[in-house]
Design goal:
4-stranded antiparallel β-sheet; 3-stranded antiparallel β-sheet; 29% helix
Length: 161
């Protein structure tokens, strides 16, 4: 640290913590969860009425996309609202997508941290013509019992060519 002129303030340091809040996540030695204050913030957000309100919501939600299965598929209609030459109109489909993302935040799994010496399972869903979805899982021993947990979800939209 000295060679790079970095300094720490002991008043701002915490030692021996079992878990901490960092970058909107509750981080422990075993898992990564969405900070509950962020979940509460999403639930309190009113429905966006224009592009200027939709962009920040999608950006915020996207920072937690690895916690939400099929994120790209769920939000595709909302991202289309932000395209050029598209009239911003909240239809039932878009309202349902917005409400589903809010619901997924409340039910997002606690992600487990990978153990690189153990095998991984990758589940791929390419059946949808609109996008691809993947889930990376791992079976770990927790409190003496085997448990399969989610390491992350990955999803991408397939763009029209």
């Amino acid at each position: 640290m000295y060679t790079h002129n970095l300094k720490i303030s002991l008043k701002k340091c915490n030692f021996g913590q079992q878990e901490l809040l960092a970058l909107g996540h509750k981080v422990s030695g075993l898992s990564l969860a969405i900070d509950q204050s962020k979940v509460a913030a999403v639930l309190q957000k009113p429905e966006p009425k224009n592009i200027k309100k939709m962009h920040p919501f999608l950006g915020f939600a996207s920072s937690y996309r690895n916690h939400i299965k099929d994120f790209a598929h769920i939000t595709s209609s909302l991202y289309k609202l932000c395209s050029k030459d598209v009239v911003f109109e909240i239809t039932k489909e878009k309202r349902d997508a917005y409400e589903r993302i809010k619901h997924e935040f409340t039910n997002a799994p606690v992600l487990i941290l990978p153990h690189f010496e153990l095998p991984f399972q990758l589940y791929i869903d390419a059946a949808c013509s609109q996008g691809l979805g993947m889930a990376l899982h791992q079976r770990q021993i927790v409190n003496g019992e085997p448990r399969e947990g989610v390491i992350c979800y990955i999803s991408r939209q397939i763009k029209d060519s």
